[in-house]
Amino acid sequence: MTLPLLVVVIGLVGYPAAYGIYLSTLNRRMTGFMEGDWLPTGLGNFEILFDSDTFWMVVWQSCIFAISAVLLKALIGFWLAHMLHHIPTKGQRKWRGMLLVPWVIPPALSTLGWWWMFDPSYSSINWILNIFAVPAVPWLGEPWWARASVIIVNVWYGAPFFMIMYLAALKSVPEQLYEAAAIDGATSWQRLRYVTLPMMANIISITVLFSLIVTFANYDIVRVLTNGGPRDLTHVFASYAFQVGILSSNIPRGAAVSLFMFPILAVCAFFVLRGVTRRNKEQM
User: Fold this and answer.
1) Rounded CA separation 164/80 (Å)
2) Which of 9, 30, 54, 218 is found 20 to 30 A from 104 (Cα to Cα)?
3) Contact 141, 231 (CB under 8 A)
4) Are 152 and 131 in contact (CB under 8 A)?
5) How far is CA 211 from CA 73, 164, 251, in A?
6) CA distance 178 to 202
C-alpha cells in the first residue's frame, strides 16, 4: 500500500539527493573525481570551499538570515494567531483571508513589489520617512541594511504560515484548562506560560523546523531583491550555489555548496524531533 508513495519519494527526493552527492565529488569538467590536498579524492570541492573566505561569509550570512527570520516569523505569527483567536467567529474568516494574502502571492512577484519600495530613487518607504524629516535609508546599498531588507521580506512572506498553524493549535487547547487556571487565580501571562505554550509546544517545534529548512533553502527573495549584493554580502546557500554552479559553470562545486546545508539542518532536526518525542512520551 505504501509502494506508490515510496516510489514518488525516491523519484523526487532520493534520486536528486544521491545525484547531487555524486556531482559534488566530480571535477569542473565532470570527467573524474575531484582531488584534494588534505581530504580524500572526491572531496576536493569541499576542501576548496573550506579555504574560501567568501564561502564562510555565506555560511555566517545564511545562519543570521535563517535564525533571525524564523524567530521573527514565529513571534509575529503567534501574536497574530493569539489576536485572531479572540476575535468572534464571523470576523475571523475575513481577517484570516486578508492576513494570508502575503503567503499565497508568488514570492518572486511580491519581492518585486518590495524591490520597488526599497529602490534608492523611487523608494516609497524613504518618501514616507522624508515626510517626517528622517534621512533616507540605503536599503539595498549598505550590507546590513540589505541583510535587514531580505529578512523583512522573508518575514512578511512567511509570518502568515506561522499564524495559521498556531491558530489551529490554539483552537485545539481545551477551554477547561483555561477555566481551571482562572479558578486557581492564574493571570493571563501565567495561563499563556503554563497552559497555552506547553499544549502548543509540539506544533511550535515542527513549524519552526519546517520553516528553518525552507528559509535556509530560500532562493527567490535573495535573487530578486539583492542578487547577493552588495559585494556578495547577502548571499545564502541557494543563491551562492546558483552563482557558483550555474553562472560560473562549476556545477560540482555548486552541488557541494548546496550539500553543506544538510549537516546543519540534520542537527537541528535531530534536536527538535527528539524534543517532540520526549514530550509525547511525557503526555502518555
Assistant:
1) 9
2) 9
3) no
4) no
5) 9, 13, 27
6) 19
Say how far apart CA 5 and CA 240 lie, in whole Å: 32
Is residue 250 within 8 A of residue 194, CB to CB? The reply is no
DSSP state at residue 137: P
Pick the closest to residue 207 from 11, 75, 15, 84 (CA basis): 75
CA distance 190 to 196: 9
pLDDT of res. 260: 86
Distance (Å, rounded) from C-alpha 52 to C-alpha 264? 19
Does the pLDDT at position 182 exceed 90?
no
Give yes or no for a contact between 93 and 167, defined as CB atoms under 8 angstroms apart: no
Output the pLDDT for position 158: 93
pLDDT of residue 218: 87
214, amino acid identity: V
H/E stretch holding 221: helix 220-225
Tell me: pLDDT of 185 over 70: yes
Q: Which residues contact 127 (CB under 8 A, 6 or more apart)?
A: none
In DSSP terms, 26 is beta-bridged to 33
CA distance 61 to 47: 20
- Partnered with residue 33 across adjacent β-strands are 26
Under the banding of pLDDT at 50, 70 and 90, the label for residue 284 is low
Q: How far apart are CA 142 and CA 231, in angstroms?
A: 10
Find the mean pLDDT for residues 152-161.
Answer: 94
Q: Residue 159 CB: number of other CB atoms within 10 A? A: 23
Per-residue pLDDT averaged across 203-221, rounded? Answer: 90
Which residue, 205, 198, 164, is CA-closest to 178? Answer: 198
- All three cell numbers of 281: 512520551
